[in-house]
Design a protein that fits this description.
By secondary structure, this protein is an alpha/beta fold. It has a domain of about 90 residues: Rossmann fold (3-Layer(aba) Sandwich), CATH 3.40.50. It is about 40% helix and about 20% strand. The protein contains 4 helices and 5 strands. The protein has a 5-stranded parallel beta sheet, with helices on both faces. The protein is globular. The termini are far apart.
Length: about 130
C-alpha cells in the first residue's frame, strides 16, 4: 500500500518541520509549505491525500485556502484538517474534514488524517 501524501501548510517553520518529521516516521509521505498560496499551488501539482492546514497564515486565512481547494476540481477530493493552537474558529459552516486544537497527541493526528482520507475516498463527509 502506498503511503498517504500529506502537505503541512504552516508558517511556523519549527512546528511544520516537526509535523513533517513525525508524519514521515509514522509512514506518511509528508512535505511542507509556509503560505496559503504555496499550499494551493502544491495541492494542484501533487497527488495529495490530505492537507494539515494552519488557521492563521501570513497571506490568507486557512479558511480561504480550504474554500479554494474545495472549489477546484483538481483538489476538491483532498481531506482538509485544520490544526491550531488557540485561534477562534468561525461558527459558520466551512467544508473542512476535521479540526485539531493543540496540544494534541500525534496518534490523534495520524488517526485524523487516516480517517478523513478514508471518508473522502468513500464519499462520506464528516462534520
Amino acid at each position: 500500500m502506498e503511503p498517504l501524501r500529506v502537505l503541512v501548510v504552516d508558517d511556523n517553520q519549527a512546528h511544520a518541520d516537526g509535523l513533517v518529521e513525525l508524519l514521515g516516521l509514522a509512514g506518511f509521505e509528508a512535505s511542507r509549505v509556509e503560505t496559503g498560496a504555496e499550499g494551493i499551488e502544491f495541492a494542484r501539482k501533487l497527488a495529495l491525500d490530505a492537507v494539515l492546514l494552519d488557521v492563521n497564515l501570513p497571506d490568507m486565512l486557512g479558511f480561504e485556502v480550504c474554500q479554494r481547494l474545495r472549489s477546484d476540481p483538481r483538489t476538491a477530493h483532498i481531506a482538509v484538517i485544520f490544526h491550531t493552537g488557540s485561534s477562534p474558529l468561525p461558527s459558520d459552516k466551512h467544508d473542512w474534514d476535521a479540526i485539531l486544537t493543540y496540544p494534541v497527541q500525534m496518534s490523534d493526528v495520524y488517526a485524523a488524517v487516516r480517517g478523513c482520507v478514508e471518508r473522502r475516498r468513500r464519499g462520506v463527509m464528516a462534520k
